[in-house]
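agent: user wants the structure for Endonuclease III from Streptomyces glaucus. delegating to structure tool.
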Amino acid sequence: MKKTTSGKKTAAGRPAPAEGAPVGGAARARTAGDSPRGESRTALVRRARRINRELAEVYPYAHPELDFDSPFQLLVATVLSAQTTDLRVNQTTPALFARYPTPEDLAAADPEEVEDILRPCGFFRAKTRSVIGLSKALAEEFGGEVPGRLEDLVKLPGVGRKTAFVVLGNAFGRPGITVDTHFQRLVRRWRWTDETDPDKIEAAVGALFPKSDWTDLSHHVIWHGRRICHARKPACGACPIAPLCPAYGEGETDPEKAKKLLKYEKGGFPGQRLRPPQAYLDAGGKPAPPLGATG
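agent: tool returned. relaying tokens verbatim.
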């Protein structure tokens, strides 16, 4: 089996990359989108789990970024989050839940009044139909309670597998993989799967991890996609998993330039322990293995 380190030490005392590890720019051994050369199924599983372990260190408090106090609130907020930001949803739902605190209340609401509240979220007419519709279904078919089964959740208006798994994983503690746009983008960049259908992605990635890891894995990947591994300009030079990423170099590799691409609030963002970009490089300025990597 090919070793992942060269035996040399970096300036930080970590193993230096092996020959052939990605080095940045045109000189890197792998081009964006290529699978690691000769990677076996066993190696893929190990690499995927190492990526998740490293992301768990970087985002130890990763969680749903939608505000909620009950399964009903999480369900509605997740439906509203389509085609908009979690921040916008969090700014909108307090007024919605203050006026309509229960499924029964929202089921009986005047659609025009709900539309006025949801207007900032975009697609407010369609979203109004969905949240009123799912509220009626909850009131009429489930006694005003959010069901804790996938097969029941996906029958509700506006609720698909992605929304259902958000609710199951975070309101009921039942493992699930949330395949949103960030998740799809990153797992394909990491060559965990070549699938494009969300259901097939869910199955392929789920097979790489214990079921108990699925919910936290989803949070780690989504947080990383929002903060570092962006769609258009990923911050490769500030990425903690650069040595494990076949797409390293698709984005900015210069540490200082990459640092400017990071998306976070002043003073950092909640639950993140992002090391400075230089911490991911060896003495020669090349990506070093993640902290704690054992090869």
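agent: one observation worth passing along. The beta strands are 5-9, 15-17.
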